[in-house]
Write a structure and sequence with these properties.
- By secondary structure, the chain is an alpha/beta fold.
- The protein folds into four domains: about 100 residues, Nucleic acid-binding proteins (OB fold (Dihydrolipoamide Acetyltransferase, E2P), Beta Barrel); about 150 residues, 3-Layer(aba) Sandwich (Rossmann fold), CATH 3.40.50.261; about 55 residues; about 45 residues, no CATH class.
- The protein has eleven helices and 14 strands.
- The strands form three sheets. Strands 1-2-3-5-4 form a five-stranded mixed beta barrel.
- Helix 4 packs parallel to helix 8 and helix 5 packs parallel to helix 6.
- The longest helix has about 50 residues.
- The termini are far apart.
Amino acid sequence: MDATGKLTVSALTELIRETLEGSFPQVVVEGELSNFRPSSTGHLYFTLKDSAASISAIMFRNRIRSLSFEPRDGMLLRVRGSLSVYAQRGTYSIVVEEMERAGEGDILAMLEERKRKLAAEGLFREERKRPIPRFPETVGVVSSPTGAAVRDILNILKRRARGIRVVILPTLVQGAEAGEIIARRIRQANFWKLADVLIVGRGGGSLEDLLPFSDEVVVRSIANSKIPVVSAVGHEIDWTLADYAADLRAPTPSAAAELVSVNREETLHIVRTLGNDLCSSIKSRIERIRLLAKPFSLADLEYRFRGILQPRLMRFDEARDALLENMQGKTSELRRRLDLARTGLEAASPLSVLQRGYSVVMPLRGGKLQPPIRRAEDVKPGETLVIRPLEGLITAIAEKVNHGKNE
């Protein structure tokens, strides 16, 4: 402080540092983990917050070995450390010495409850998921039009599939109103059939930044979308409820662009390579067949064919002759048996008896012919008799009936 009582920024900051660090040499703080970001140097940077305030925190690499769990946004933590002032930025933070879990934070608990509810409704079932088209003509992107995610998607699609059409459906990607706008854009894309596949996402951020993509209205819009949806929210370690409802989850927006666009140059190269391989294979097979067929002349083939056919023809002729011979034998036997039956039938026929001079005598009684007479006693004198020789009929009157055998 000079004579006028003025302080330089450095002097004021030093006073604040001495006051804070001296007054709070050690603190134990409980709060919800947010904006967790490990650095390339191995240090952990994050924020502890509650419903009304937040404070920055850092845990240096040499203290991380004592951790028994992997920190994630939304966890409720209890940390022990000291306050420290970073003079160059004029900020203060907790330098964490020890960290332990104190339970789940409010956000994580809310997300878990919402996840259970939506899963029970079947919105995350695998059988609901639609296949992503291999060669889409139009890709819809639901994201912030000024964000890095959109630029990455456009660059990758331009490089891999230059002829593909991209429709940007602008939306907020964080904040209280973002969820409803994201859901509205998804519904609009379906109503107007604006794309063959949708990429819904944004770049990385804290758990709170990504909350709109776990909004119930967004999850339902994705699950009900007729257009296949690829979720691309944050980095690979980030997860939202949109990832569970989407037909495919991409670890980053750039990866989503790669998943929906097969490299057309590579595909063309593969097709050409397969075509060449197919032609080579066909030519090789034709040449092999030609070499195998070369020793076989037309005369040789005919000779081989006759060698195969001749034994079969001989067997056929033998079988035919045996069949005919058998049929002739059967026919002769049947003819002989038929002749014998006819002879026996003719011998037993009444007509053959009549042909030998015999006649049939039948009494006529009451105007009706009776059965032939077998005994003389069956006839009475004066009775009318009808005699049937071989031809014609004779009517006679019985004058006398002799009952003796030879009289």
